[in-house]
Each structure stands twice: as structure tokens, then as C-alpha cells.
Amino acid sequence: MAAVLLDGKAIAQGVEDRVRDRVDALKAKGCIPGLMVILVGEDPASQTYVNNKEKACQRLGLRSRILRLPQSASQEELEEAIRAANEDSSVHGILVQLPLPKGLNEARALALILPGKDVDGFHDINAGRLMRGDKGVVACTPKGAMHMLKSAGISIAGKEAVVVGRSNIVGKPMAMLLLQENATVTMCHSRTQDLPAHTRQADILVVAIGRPRFITADMVKDGAVVVDVGMNRVDGKWCGDVDFGPVSERAAYITPVPGGVGKMTIAMLMENTVLAAEEAWAGQ
Ligand code: NDP
């Protein structure tokens, strides 16, 4: 039987509708939620991502500002831009578009963003809070993936969850979120021995490795929930890390690519920015 599709577009639309209402409520009090995106250099993919973020702000009524620094910008110039955004009370969320050009220190730049304005959730403080299970800003992609599971009413507690990929922006925070929801979590990576033996145990399988159609049907348990975070461009088309057709014959639920987790990421960025604005307003 074919799996139920977890429709990122529809779920993200629901999130955006609620964010829009919260933006309106803030505006009625005199606060316009503002996002500052700092883009260094001219990487075409980054330009597209930044434009998409700006469009989302426009759709939902947030104020967006893009600060474009040249490819040749120094670490000092980047850090000065972050400090200025930290001090600007009309900026509630700050996002440094990654990757930065070679020669710039990403970790140092991210560590400068005030944790309350770190709407990507990449700051050490927010990553640490997630690790401890404390309240903080949660990275947009794993937060969006969790939201998809919950909105489909998928139960997580007590389930075997396997996360393939251990990056700081997807795999690790995803594993922490599943653990918070009381799943039994296994993390796999490029050095994992016998990956299929692990993935076949998964009631919930999350894949974020950046390898087109790597997870095949024989690696998936019957009736599993499969969340495909991968975004790969093959012959001019997007595909995930999961071999979608055959796997969807075996899984109970599956996220498509495109139209799955990717749709959730920007919606969660908007939600994180509005949350930051609400907290800044409440703290005044
Ligand atoms: P990274 O390159 O930072 O991490 C990839 C991870 O996959 C690493 O932990 C690596 O292991 C692991 N890995 C690579 N090959 C294998 C393998 N053969 N078997 C098991 N594990 C493997 O990637 P990201 O986390 O940044 O992104 C992953 C994918 O998700 C990409 O396709 C990216 O485009 C996509 N993505 C999508 C987003 C969205 O909005 N939908 C947002 C962010 C990312 P090791 O640590 O051992 O090297």
C-alpha cells in the first residue's frame, strides 16, 4: 500500500496562517517583527534562499532587511554588522546566511548574535538549551520536521527513531527533539557499520545526508514513517536522500522532495522571528 504523503506545502501554509495572525496582533500593539538577513558574497544558491526568506516576510507582514556585504568583506566588517543588528531594537531576528565565503570564521560570527535574536537556532546557547531540554530557539529544519510528524498525529513516545546524518543544523538537533518526545533514538553517520541493519529497525526514519536516493526500500521497515530532509539537484530536478517511489510502497508515511521538509524551514524561520519579537515586546 502506498504511504500517506506528509504534505509540507499544506502544513507550512497552516503555520504561516497562524504566524500572520500573531504578526497582526503585534502590529496592533505597535511592534512590527523584523528580520535582518546578512548575506556575504554572491553565491547564487544563497541569493535564492535569501530572496525566498524576504518573500516570506512580505507575505506575512514582517519587516525584512537584507544587508549585503561584498565577497571581500573582512571578519571585522561582518562582526560589526552583527553587533549593529544586535543593538537595533527594530531587528528581532538575525540570520547570517551560510555558507560564508572562505576565510570568514562562521563559528565566531554566529556566537556574536544575541541568543534571543538567533532565529536560526545555531548559537551555542540555543544548541546547549536544546541538549538540556530547556526552552530556547530551535533550528528551523528539524523543528519543521517535528511539526510535520505532530500535525499528522504520529505518536513518537517509545518509538525507535533513527536519524541518519549528524550535522549541527539538522541531524543532531533532530535527534534531540525526538529524544525530548521520548523516542529511543539512534544516530547514524558515514562511519556507521551496517547502516541498513539500523535503518530497518526504525519506526521513524529521518534522513539528512545529502546523497540522492541513498535510502532504498530494502533499508526501510514496513509501515515506517520516513522523513526525507535531503535536497539534491540531479539532472536539473530536486530529489531527496530517499528513493521515493519504492520506499513509499513500504512506508506508512513519507515526506516528498520537493514539497516536504523544505517547505517547513522558512515557515519555522518566520515563527521563530515572531516568537523573538513577542518575547522582546513582553520584556520591554
Ligand atoms: P552535512 O553535509 O553537514 O552532513 C551530512 C551528514 O550525513 C554527516 O553527518 C555525514 O556523516 C552523513 N553521511 C554522509 N554520507 C553518509 C553515508 N553514506 N551514510 C551515512 N551517513 C552519511 O549535511 P546537512 O545536514 O547540512 O544536510 C543534509 C541534507 O539535508 C542535504 O541534502 C541538504 O541539502 C539538506 N538540507 C535541507 C534543508 C531543508 O530545508 N529541507 C535544510 C538543511 C539541509 P559524517 O558526519 O560521518 O561525515
What does this structure look like?
The protein is an alpha/beta fold and 284 residues long. It has 2 domains: 30-115, 3-Layer(aba) Sandwich (Rossmann fold); 140-262, 3-Layer(aba) Sandwich (Rossmann fold), CATH 3.40.50. Helix content is 43%, strand content 16%. The protein contains 10 helices and 11 strands. The chain has helices at 8-28, 44-60, 75-87, 106-112, 124-132, 140-151, 171-180, 195-199, 244-250, 261-282; strands spanning 4-5, 34-40, 63-69, 93-96, 160-164, 184-188, 204-207, 225-228, 232-234, 237-239, 253-254. The strands form 3 sheets. Strands 1-11-8-7-5-6 form a 6-stranded parallel sheet, sandwiched between helices. Strand 9 and strand 10 form a beta hairpin. Helix 6 crosses helix 7 (171-180). The longest helix is centred in the last third of the chain and has 22 residues, at 261-282. The chain is globular and about 50 Å long. The termini are far apart. The site of NADPH dihydro-nicotinamide-adenine-dinucleotide phosphate (NDP) has 25 residues, from helix 10. NADPH dihydro-nicotinamide-adenine-dinucleotide phosphate (NDP) binds at residues 141, 164-167, 169-171, 188-192, 195, 208-211, 229-232, 261-262, 265.
